[in-house]
Amino acid sequence: MLDLGASDHIGLITLTIDDLDAGIITLMEREPRIGLLEVSRRLGVARGTVQARVAKLSDRGAITGFGPQLDPARLGYPVLAFVFLEIAQGRLAEAVDVLEAIPEVMEAHGTTGPLDLLCRIVARDNEHLQDLLNVILASPAIRRSTSYIAMSRQIEFRTVPLVVAAAAPAR
């Protein structure tokens, strides 16, 4: 049963999910092309129930998309770097504008600690990564960068274990 939970400390509405929600999400995550009718058949519930649950999960922001998941390495960007950026005081918006203009910046997160943003950046090779960093550092809004190049992926991005844990009774 999907219930609207309480607001958390940053203003997000948290959701409570049950085993049925977890089953729906797990099937859709593991088999992205699966239809709602097939989900309902496998879980032994009505198609309308599955459709209503998916709609609620989507409306409340728990499910954020249904598009294909892409592998940047297969698109010609095999280098993955995690880059911390120090931002000039009061210039965060300007720094974000710079980063948004660079397609290879996959995401950026504000962080605690001595550095301000953590970016996930992909590149064709190390020289391309250096060129990207030079573009980023050309902005007066960005003071310094610290880069870590990923050598290998030990755990793929995943959500199913989190969904299963969220549906389990609190310990």
Total number of β-strand segments? 6
* Sequence of secondary-structure elements: EEHHHEHEEHEH
Mean pLDDT over the residues? 90
Q: What is the top-level CATH class of the largest domain?
A: Alpha Beta
Overall number of structural domains: 2
**Uncertain spans:** 1-9
- What's the main sheet like? 4 strands, antiparallel
User: Treating each run of at least 4 consecutive H or I residues as one helix, how many helices?
Assistant: 6
How would the blueprint of this fold be written?
Layout: E1 3-7, E2 13-16, H1 19-30, H2 36-43, H3 47-59, E3 79-87, H4 92-100, E4 105-110, E5 117-123, H5 126-137, E6 142-149, H6 160-167
Antiparallel strand pairs: 1-2, 3-5, 3-6, 4-5
Helix pairs in contact: 1-6, 2-3
Briefly say what this structure is:
With 171 residues, this protein is α+β, with helices and mostly antiparallel strands.
Describe the structure.
- The chain has 171 residues and is an alpha+beta fold.
- The chain has two domains: 3-67, Winged helix-like DNA-binding domain superfamily/Winged helix DNA-binding domain (Arc Repressor Mutant, subunit A); 72-149, 2-Layer Sandwich (Alpha-Beta Plaits).
- It has six helices and six strands, in the order ββαααβαββαβα.
- The strands form two sheets. The protein has a four-stranded antiparallel β-sheet with strand order 4-5-3-6, covered by helices on one side.
- β1 (3-7) and β2 (13-16) form a beta hairpin.
- α1 (19-30) runs antiparallel to α6 (160-167) and α2 (36-43) crosses α3.
- The longest helix is centred in the first third of the chain and has 13 residues, at 47-59.
- The protein is elongated, with a radius of gyration of 20 Å.
